[in-house]
Predict the structure of Inositolphosphotransferase Aur1/Ipt1 domain-containing protein.
Amino acid sequence: MTMQIELPAQRSLLGAIFWRNRLFLSIVALYVLAGVGVSLAKNVSFWSGTVPVLLGILDIFKLMLISFATIWIIWRFIYAATSVKPEKPIHWLLADLRGAVLNSMNLVDGTLCFMAVGFMAATFTFFKDLIPSFQPFSWDPQFAELDRFLHGGVDAWTLLWPVFGTPLFTTVLNAAYHAWFILLYVAVFVAAFDRRDPERSMAFLVAFSLTWIVGGTVLATLFSSAGPVYYQAFGFGDTFAAQMQKLAELNEISPVWSLEVQQILLDNYRADGPVRGISAMPSMHVATSVLLALFAFSYSRVLGWAMAVFAGSILIGSVHLGWHYAVDGYFSIVIAGICWWFAKTLAKRFSDPSY
């Protein structure tokens, strides 16, 4: 009898969770189905490359869960000691923790959405590896020329070098470029689990998915390009050889980790290795950093401006480290802005109970 009562309730709970996340989950599901369809059409394995990414996302999820749980417990303990001041602090903390854990809707919400991002990331990797088979790298000369047109007839990196072309600044920019990965998944985790403002969370998750799909797959394929670092490797000339040589010289003094990553990608591309995705236009580092800033502004102006500064450092680093042409970043800012606006519009509409 108990099972007959509990099972419908559980089904109702799961149905409610899927329903209120239907916009984001539908976008991800269609993207994954597109990936499976392309894999069948091109007779290439979809799961051989995506499963390792999914396992990696699962590891990130576990790490995030432990980290945020630890921070939350410490915060609640401090809150109890300074504000509540209960007679039995441990009992209060355990009851508080039990209340949070039993809030099953938010927990399932967060887990479902975070893992959906994992499927999206895995599908993105699948498509990124296939870009050269759809459209060989060909836009690099045009983007390099457009860069020079916009920057007074010189390559954008030459304008940055007098300021940032030191061992310390280059290492700092590279560190920020790597920190992007951590901040990206922190933001995803927050959006997935913080449902105090469901419309805000949904807007970010939808904008996040649209930016990767439209920018990182559709536009990246249409404007297939490798970036300044690979300009010579793909037969476009030695235009950026001086920049890469200067970075190599700085690496002798202070670490420039991007150089190793760039070489690994090129080696894997040539050997058809596991990590071989190369794509310059648009810059997903820049696009998603702009999204992080817009999301942060929805929490506070201070946090928003801090993330805006971070996004600016990513834009500078993307050019300075040879990953991107400046126009890649400019275009990415526009893409992120449009996706954020469109996602907010959709999230507002789908949050309407009558819709």
About this structure: DSSP finds 14 helices and no strands in the chain. The chain has a mean pLDDT of 88.
